[in-house]
Amino acid sequence: MKFFIDTANLAQIKEANDLGILDGVTTNPSLMAKEGVKGQDAIMQHYKTICEMVDGDISAEVVSTKFEDIVEEGKKLAAIHKNIVVKIPMIKDGIKAIKWFTDNGIPTNCTLVFSAGQAILAAKAGAKYVSPFVGRIDDSGWDGMELIGQIAQIFDIQGYKTEVLVASIRNPNHIIRSAELGAHVITSPLDSILGLLKHPLTDIGLAKFLEDAKKM
Ligand code: E4P
Hints:
single chain, alpha/beta, TIM Barrel, binds erythose-4-phosphate
C-alpha cells in the first residue's frame, strides 16, 4: 500500500519524506489556502516545489467545474511537472474531463467520492485514483471503511486498474483498516502516519533496554 501525505505544508511534507516511506502528496484548495498560497503564480510555484521535494505522484486539484475549463486548468497543472496528477471532483463534467485526460495520457485523481456508484464511474472514465473520503463519512454517522471494502471488492471483481486511494483519514486505525481491506493507497495527515509508530510497550521496553545498557 502506497503512503501519500495529505497536506500542502512544506515542513510536514519534508518530515514525512525524510522518513523514507512517502510515495506521494495530495493537496486540495482548502489545504493550499491554509498555507496562505494565493494567486496563480504562487500556486503553480508551490506545486513545483512539492514536485521537486517528493519523487512520486502529486495531486493538484482543479477549481473549475465546467468540462472545457477543467481541461484547460488541468492541462496547465499537468505542465508543471511530469509527476502531477490532476485532481478532479466527482461531478458530471468532472467525469467527462477524466475521460479526456485518460485519452490524452494525463493521470487523474477523482476526488469527493462518497459512494460505490461514484467510484465505478470514475474507474470507467479511466481515473488513475479514486478518492473516497472516509473521515467525512464517519463524521456524518456512516461507516467510511465499509465503503472502502465495497469499492475494493468491486474493483477486484471487475478488474479495474483504478487505484483505491483512501482519503480524509482521521487516525492511524483508518490506515491499518485500509491495508486490511486491500486499498492501494492512503493519503493521510502527518500525525496519523506518525501515530503508527506509537505503542506504550515500545516506550517501556526501550526505557528498560537503555537503563540496562548502562550496566553493560
Ligand atoms: C483528499 O485528497 C482530500 O485532500 C482530503 O483527504 C480531505 O480530507 P478532510 O476530510 O480531512 O478535509
